[in-house]
Specification:
Blueprint (H helix, E strand, L loop, with lengths): L3 E4 L7 E9 L9 E2 L3 H9 L2 E11 L29 H22 L16
Antiparallel strand pairs: 1-4, 2-3, 2-4
Length: 126
């Protein structure tokens, strides 16, 4: 079954929201998730959400206990790029060399056989 476009007024607790399709204001929903309560729907409405995309195949069973609404995080600034972990050249160089050689083999097998590798230099980390 395909996703379904739902007006915020028709959104029900237990629905799985995949994406916000229409909104007014600066509020940004960062990830998809379950709408567990009417309070969560009210909070989305107050943040300017007008239309959402739901997955009708994912539906939470109704419970008699009131669910605690989870406040989605509003994005006030553009998201910073995630920090790239430090990797040393000596760790990555052998992997890159293997990838290059494997690529050359594939090109020789599937190409016209005229692959010429130039400027390939072995560097030993010191």
């Amino acid at each position: 079954m395909a996703y379904k476009e739902v007006n915020i007024a028709d959104l029900q607790p237990g629905s799985y929201v995949v994406q916000v399709l229409q909104q007014k204001g600066e509020f940004v929903v960062k990830q998809s998730g379950w709408v567990r309560s009417t309070e969560a729907i009210d909070m989305l409405r107050k943040k300017g959400v007008l239309v959402v995309l739901i997955d009708p195949e994912k539906k939470l069973p109704q419970t008699s206990e009131p669910a605690t609404p989870v406040e989605p995080q509003a994005e006030t600034e553009p998201a910073a790029e995630p920090a790239v972990p430090h990797v040393s050249f000596s760790d990555e160089q052998p992997k890159a060399e293997r990838a290059l050689l494997q690529t050359a083999k594939v090109q020789l097998c599937h190409g016209n056989g005229s692959l010429i590798l130039t400027n390939m230099v072995m560097i030993k980390p010191g």
